[in-house]
Amino acid sequence: MNKKSNIVQQKNQPLGFDLKKIRNDFPILHQIINGKPLVYLDNAATSQKPKNVLDAIEKYYREYNSNIHRGVHTLSENATEAYELARLKVKNFINAQSNKEVIFVRGATEAINLVAQSFGRNSLNENDEIIITELEHHANIVPWQLLSEQTGATLKFIPINDNGELIIEEYKKLLSKNTKIVAVGHISNALGTINPIKTIINMAHEYEAKVLIDGAQATSHISVDVQKLDCDFYAFSGHKIFGPTGVGILYGKEVLLEKMPPYQGGGDMIKMVTMMETQYNDLPYKFEAGTPNISGAIGLGAAIDYVNEIGLENISQYENELLNYANQLASEITGLKFIGTAKQKTSILSFTLKGIHPHDIGTILNNEGIAIRTGHHCAMPVMEHFKIPATSRASFAFYNTHEEIDVLIKAIDKCKKVFN
């Protein structure tokens, strides 16, 4: 690798962005791995949790652990209030029209499956078509393959170019009066590509198709306004936005959710049950059968508070600077090839090293205390497009530093020395 003298090291933080304080808010970052300070660069897989999220979850279990909606005692009322406050926070965060449009689920995966089975299975037939993309995470591929098998509908996909960008001209060719559902990721988990989803949504609506956006990778990086986007459904996971695992959100337009049958049956999604029939509950509870992840919802609300306090604009600005810095340094490593060079992308550095398998890279980096992701990233069609089995992926969050990127680059250079 060349000396860093050619690198412009811009380390300015956005106004009001206190990196030292932010890092102190994340206890897990301050530990030693294999004798080295932890450098956590696997944020696209899951993000770490700030103290206020950990405190909110602990407070629920310590002070008012109880089931919600059905109790008249104080603990239940407090738990219900906190749970519904979290729903309101989500509603405001994505600018939904109503709390009724915010459904708590286990994550983006369940949200997509809910739409496929409750909306898709009850409205599609063998003459209909579903459009997805070559960029998708498996969670936004497999549910539509299952739906296609169940209904006879045809599944089509938008191809990508060698920069990892969707070819919109090909999308235009796929659309027809038979298109009923378009399902697209907001941001690629494998490459970091930010898709032009507003354009995709508008084009689909010209054919009266419904659009689901998989926002699992987006909500922690960029602002999402579901009303401006005019998407029909939007899905995201709590653990990608500094909240707990096992909780996520399905946003759906109220008019669509009202017509959709329940995805699961059980307690709390009912108004009345006899041995002969059931009357379903109102939105959003019609889709929330059984005891939900109450602490998870409360933790997600706390995570949204934290992100709002820092500001997504500040987060995006700082993460873009980190990515530019990493790209500059990585571009000087001989044999390193960037996978995914879209003009519009977020903080993911996906790469290969000539002659070195990504799993070996990940192992050597782990010995240096660096956590990255290696493999196909649950996006095997992307790997197939680039004719590679896997990539090494470093993904950045707003608590990462330029110094951590220096450590990453030094460790990548060490990989070359080990194998040479």
Descriptive account of the structure:
With 420 residues, the protein is α/β, with parallel strands linked by helices. It contains 14 helices and 17 strands. It has two domains: 4-30 and 311-419, Aspartate Aminotransferase, domain 1; 53-309, Type I PLP-dependent aspartate aminotransferase-like (Major domain) (Aspartate Aminotransferase, domain 2, 3-Layer(aba) Sandwich). 38% of the residues lie in helices and 16% in strands. The strands form five sheets. The protein has a seven-stranded mixed beta sheet with strand order 4-10-9-8-7-5-6, with helices on both faces. Strands 13-14-17-16 form a four-stranded antiparallel beta sheet, with helices on one face. A hairpin with a 2-residue loop joins strand 1 and strand 2 (36-37). The longest helix is centred in the N-terminal third of the chain and has 21 residues, at 74-94. Residues 1-10 have low confidence and may be disordered.
What number is the mean pLDDT? 95
Tally of discrete structural domains:
2
- CATH homologous superfamily heading of the largest domain: Type I PLP-dependent aspartate aminotransferase-like (Major domain)
For the largest beta-sheet, the strand count, sense and barrel status come to: 7 strands, mixed
Beta-strand content? 15-25%
Q: Kindly report the oligomeric state of this protein.
A: single chain
Say what the CATH topology of the largest domain is. Aspartate Aminotransferase, domain 2
Question: End-to-end distance, in Å?
Answer: 14 Å
Number of helices: 14
Helical amount = 25-40%
CATH class of the largest domain: Alpha Beta
Q: How many strands?
A: 17
Label the structural class: alpha/beta
Radius of gyration: 22 Å
Q: Provide the CATH architecture of the largest domain.
A: 3-Layer(aba) Sandwich
- Shape, principal axes of CA atoms: globular
Pick out the low-confidence regions: 1-10
- Strand numbers in spatial order across the main sheet: 4-10-9-8-7-5-6
